[in-house]
Amino acid sequence: MKQTIHEVKPDERDQAILVSLVTAEQKRLDDYDPEYSLTELVRLAETAGVEVLGKLTQNKEYTDSKWFVGKGKAAELKDLIAETGANTAIFDQELSGAQVRNLEQFLDVKIIDRTQLILDIFAGRAKTREGIIQVELAQLSYLLPRLSGHGKNLSRLGGGIGTRGPGESKLETDRRHIRGRIDELKRQLHEVVRHRSLHRERRKETGVYQVALVGYTNAGKSTLLRQLTDSDVLVENQLFATLDPTSRSLTLPSGVDIVLTDTVGFIQNLPHELVAAFRATLEEANEADLILHVVDSSSEMMTIQMKVVDQVLEELGAHGKERVTVFNKIDMCPPEQVDMLTTEGEFLRISAYREADLQRVLETIESKLMGDSRTFRIPAEKGDMISLVYRIGEVLENEVDGDDMLMRVRLNNKEYQKMGYMLAAYDSARQAQGEARGETTEHV
After folding, report:
1. Model confidence over 200-244: pLDDT tens digits?
2. Which of 215, 250, 314, 383 is the most buried (most CB within 10 A)?
């Protein structure tokens, strides 16, 4: 029997049934919680402007190659759709093109999987040219092998989730045209990466420290950035409220200015297409002198969220970077839970809305970047060397001793090595004389 297509008006809100399939393989994973994943899917759907009318879960040994869920569960889903009047089914796992096509024909509604839902949210949040390019590249890379399975989606230009971004004119053309568009986007993105690399090199040349905020989406990174820098960064209690990276200047207690960057939030099962497309953005973390891993302490799935961040950082090659874990939102936790917040390495327990906690964050950043203090003996006539010391470190004390300046300076190992290289030409005889007088200062 010929099925009719349920047309969605541009102003009609998507109403969806959420579907999750839990396989035996997933149950064996230590860091997978199907109930949490489905709860997160609800939040993703709401973030995309979808009204959730119901949820359906199936436990099965393996996925069905034709229907993804079992044929009986697909029939149950069809009945639930008819009962609720839903026009969309959103699956918590990634579907193949054939599965999408079969489900669309059987259910007569739009079929969206978790990856496409996340891509759709990103498409609605991208504001800069770089972000728009990256999202479109990720969407096209995802959709290219699935074109035959998205006929219903592509026929609904402007019809809600799954239709934002590239648009009907690009997606309904032949594969050669889409591949050409992907190549063009990669070329444009290459230029973006090149310009970003140049900016990084300039920052390195000026000696400006870079600190990156990373963490699970909605952990409070943007709030922390806004509170620390007193800036007008968008803060909303929803997933992926900010997509494009935001950098602000931050002055440490010593007066040293650094650059603090808020990166895009991570999420469980972050689509590979997004990790690839957003590599240029996420590399801000890889290039940073220090990473602040912001954690939502109030989340019941805090441990899993921390593991997700670790996995993405490892994929980016930033896993071994100097890092401080910042347990945020402790004002939303009972005291006994706060006391249990701990992890390997250095960590802080804070609320981004407490001034005293923000001061501790600044002091920790300064301690990590500026390091311990060292005393240098520099010939007074070397004015350029003395100027360099003031520029790359915090001068705690200085005094004149004969023809020399004794300067106690706080600077980290990286700057100490740079300084040692630039100031290597010092008078060995003066050093010998100093040692004879029992001095332990470093001569330049």
Report:
1. 677 666 668 889 999 888 888 989 998 999 876 555 555 665 556
2. 215
Residue set of the binding site for Mg(2+)? 222, 242
CB atoms within 10 A of CB 115: 21
Q: Would strands 404-410 and 373-379 be described as parallel, antiparallel, or unpaired?
A: antiparallel
CB atoms within 10 A of CB 290: 19
Give CA–CA dist 291/285, Å, rounded: 7
Name the phi and psi angles at 379, rounded to 5.
-55, 135
Cβ–Cβ < 8 Å for 376, 441: yes
- Pairing mode, strands 347-349 and 323-328: parallel
* Distance, CA of 102 to CA of 66 (rounded, Å): 7
DSSP 144: G
Return the percent helix, strand and coil in the chain, to nearest 5.
45, 20, 35
CA dihedral 36, 38, 43, 45 (to 10 degrees): 170
Q: Across the strands, what pairs with 112? A: 90
Phi (first) and psi of residue 164, to 5 degrees: -80, 155
Residues at the annotated binding site for GTP? 215-222, 240-244, 262-265, 328-331, 351-353
Q: Return the axis-axis angle of helices 279-287 and 129-143, rounded to nearest 10°.
A: 120
In angstroms, the CA 328 to CA 219 distance is 7
**Residues in the annotated binding site:** 215-222, 240-244, 262-265, 328-331, 351-353
Nearest to 300 by CA among 17, 40, 18: 40
Sign of CA dihedral 98, 100, 101, 107: positive
Confidence (pLDDT) at 19: 96
CA distances from 1 to 6, 41, 153 (A): 16, 34, 22
As a whole number of angstroms, the distance between CA 164 and CA 235 comes to 23
What tokens were used for 345? 């390495």
Where do the domains of the chain lie, and which CATH numbers do they carry? 15-171 (3.40.50.11060), 208-369 (3.40.50.300), 371-443 (3.30.70)
Distance between CA atoms of 347 and 351, rounded to whole angstroms?
13
User: Which residues, at least 6 apart from 213, have a Cβ–Cβ distance to it below 8 Å?
Assistant: 221, 224, 225, 260, 261, 262, 263, 292, 294
